[in-house]
Design brief:
This protein has two domains: about 70 residues, Vaccinia Virus protein VP39 (Rossmann fold, 3-Layer(aba) Sandwich); about 100 residues, Vaccinia Virus protein VP39 (Rossmann fold). Helix content is about 35%, strand content about 20%. The chain has a seven-stranded mixed β-sheet with strand order 3-2-1-4-5-7-6, sandwiched between helices. Helix 4 links the parallel strand 2 and strand 3. It starts with 8 loop residues before the first helix and ends with a helix. The relative contact order is 0.14. The model has no long low-confidence stretch (mean pLDDT about 95). Keywords: Methyltransferase, S-adenosyl-L-methionine, Transferase, tRNA processing. Catalyzes the formation of N(7)-methylguanine at position 46 (m7G46) in tRNA. It is an enzyme of class 2 (transferase). It catalyses: guanosine(46) in tRNA + S-adenosyl-L-methionine = N(7)-methylguanosine(46) in tRNA + S-adenosyl-L-homocysteine.
Length: about 220
């Protein structure tokens, strides 16, 4: 379901300019300068209304976070919350995940969060899934040598398909959970996750790491 268009978006985004990156291509290779420190950079693709990334940034002041969201209604809600909290280690932008190598230099990102990405159910739309091999190739390029993807979803079919896609493309799978909320993993919920887990949906999670031997063969 599409979110209703929010009112006065231009004015509201202008008020949030301090946490927005309006020209991310100009920051490529210079993200640490943008934050004013040498801390690691983590990226969430599809941050929604921002619950996960805001709490993660609060808990980790020594890490820089970049949150991407294409839906303007969700993005403005996330940025307004960030403005209210004055988190210096968090920035937002709207951008296409397929072209992330245009705004991040090789090895510039330490970790990528994929939380409850759109499953695009018909198999013919698999190329639009954020765990499709073309996206994985982009992630591989921008992640540092020992970088990782943390992926979670409530969609079992997407999860199983994604595990196969990751394995086939040389990623090392670790810490797989088939019922995250019954596990011992430290977990910060998204808005979506809280809603559907309350309805009894099981949450699936995996960490996918770049294989060192794969990097040596490049």
């Amino acid at each position: 379901m599409r979110m209703r268009k929010k009112k006065n978006l231009d004015v509201r985004f202008e008020r949030c300019a301090s946490v927005m990156v309006s020209d991310p291509r100009a920051v490529r290779g210079k993200w640490r300068e943008k934050f004013g420190n040498d801390n690691p950079i983590r990226l969430e693709i599809g941050c929604g209304k921002g619950r996960f990334i805001l709490e993660t940034a609060r808990r980790n002041p020594d890490i820089n976070f970049v949150a991407i969201e294409k839906e303007e209604g969700a993005l403005i809600m996330a940025t307004e919350k960030a403005i209210a909290e004055e988190l210096p280690n968090l920035r937002f932008l709207s951008f296409d995940a397929a072209a992330l190598n245009e705004i991040f230099a090789p090895g510039e990102v330490s970790l990528i969060y994929l939380n409850f990405s759109d499953p695009w159910p018909p198999n013919r739309q698999r190329k639009r899934r954020l765990t499709w091999r073309a996206f994985l190739a982009v992630y591989d390029e921008i992640l540092e040598e020992e970088g990782a993807i943390f992926f979670k979803t409530d969609n079992q079919r997407l999860f199983e398909w994604s595990l196969g896609e990751l394995c086939q493309n040389g990623w090392l799978l670790q810490n797989i959970s088939l019922d995250l909320h019954k596990s011992d993993y430290d977990n910060i919920m998204t808005e979506y996750e809280e809603k559907f887990s309350a309805q009894g949906y099981r949450i699936y999670r995996v960490e996918a790491r770049k294989r060192i031997e794969k990097n040596l063969l490049k």
